[in-house]
């Protein structure tokens, strides 16, 4: 039983390469047309930070929608908020263009970077209400693949997406799309037509700004450039304006950019109808933006041994040895973690 659990986790690690090539070729259905993707924008620090900030805001706003409207949730609020945020980013994009893939790479890359840091510095918190960062990576990958499996099958084959997960990704995407349609019909000013194109079904009240931003002053001079950047960000302004055009909320919500945090974090606080985003989280995004391109390059070289993504540092000395040795060591390590010595 212990070995089987470890093997399943081993299999789960197989799809890190979804966005890790510097050139990805995607089949366009049966016509054989191809789209080339070069992740240039994702490597841009500003784009990386803004993409992860967009996901963070949408994730926390999803919590606000669920909480303020008393929406019942199966499967956990954190997983639901992740899925709503990613589905919104996919469904409001202009198809499978480079911008969408760059956003997904930026967000997935952040999770993978956090995962690699977590496994080096902290005990893994299997009890946490949040999915592990590596699970969040695979969840978004599955949703993107499920949106157009006929067009993205070549990526699945080339980048190790386990068929056990890929088999249901189109159904997972369809179910999430239906859920998003239900949310839009009941709690927004927009909906989707028969072709799943977004349209404005009614206008929001002109003076009604249900979501506002407040920047909390800080005495930490290191955060001053972050505040200046946030206040001047046109993408942030557009996101808030668009949110006010889309969302119906029974009560106003304020987004507080805050300095008094125990670490890089963001959360929905129902006691104040507010979303708190720490300046330190933006700082983390800035730092991790510099790590994305080296990470992609490194993982490209490790692609034939996908389970190394779990504990790469522990196996640096084994890369020259045979794969069976690495496999046995990995399974033993996972057994120790999952069930103890």
TrEMBL record:
**Superkingdom as given in the UniProt entry:** Bacteria
A Pfam cross-reference name: DUF4344
Q: Which InterPro entries match?
A: DUF4344
Name under which the protein is recorded: Metallopeptidase
- What is the organism lineage in this UniProt record? Bacteria, Pseudomonadati, Pseudomonadota, Gammaproteobacteria, Oceanospirillales
């Amino acid at each position: 039983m212990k070995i089987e659990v470890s093997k399943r986790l081993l299999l789960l690690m197989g799809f890190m390469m979804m966005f890790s090539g510097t050139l990805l070729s995607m089949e366009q259905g049966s016509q054989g047309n191809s789209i080339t993707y070069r992740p240039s924008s994702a490597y841009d620090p500003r784009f990386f930070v803004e993409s992860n900030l967009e996901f963070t805001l949408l994730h926390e706003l999803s919590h606000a929608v669920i909480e303020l409207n008393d929406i019942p949730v199966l499967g956990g609020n954190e997983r639901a908020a992740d899925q709503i945020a990613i589905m919104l980013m996919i469904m409001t994009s202009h198809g499978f263009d480079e911008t969408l893939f760059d956003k997904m790479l930026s967000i997935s890359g952040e999770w993978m970077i956090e995962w690699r840091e977590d496994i080096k510095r902290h005990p893994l918190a299997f009890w946490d209400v949040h999915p592990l960062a590596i699970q969040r990576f695979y969840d978004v990958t599955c949703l993107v693949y499920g949106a157009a499996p006929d067009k993205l099958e070549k990526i699945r084959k080339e980048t190790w997406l386990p068929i056990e997960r890929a088999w249901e990704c189109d159904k997972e995407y369809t179910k999430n799309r239906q859920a998003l349609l239900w949310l839009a019909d009941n709690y927004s000013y927009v909906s989707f037509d028969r072709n799943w194109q977004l349209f404005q079904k009614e206008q929001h009240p002109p003076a009604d700004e249900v979501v506002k931003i407040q920047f909390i002053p800080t005495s930490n001079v290191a955060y001053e450039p972050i505040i200046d950047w946030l206040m001047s960000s046109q993408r942030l302004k557009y996101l808030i304006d668009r949110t006010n055009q889309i969302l119906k909320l029974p009560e106003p919500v304020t987004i507080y950019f805050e300095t008094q945090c125990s670490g890089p974090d963001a959360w929905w606080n129902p006691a104040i109808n507010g979303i708190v985003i720490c300046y330190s989280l933006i700082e983390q995004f800035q730092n991790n933006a510099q790590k994305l391109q080296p990470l992609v390059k490194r993982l490209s070289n490790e692609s034939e041994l996908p389970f190394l993504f779990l504990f790469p540092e522990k196996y640096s000395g084994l890369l020259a040895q045979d794969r069976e040795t690495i496999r046995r060591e990995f399974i033993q390590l996972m057994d120790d973690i999952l069930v103890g010595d």
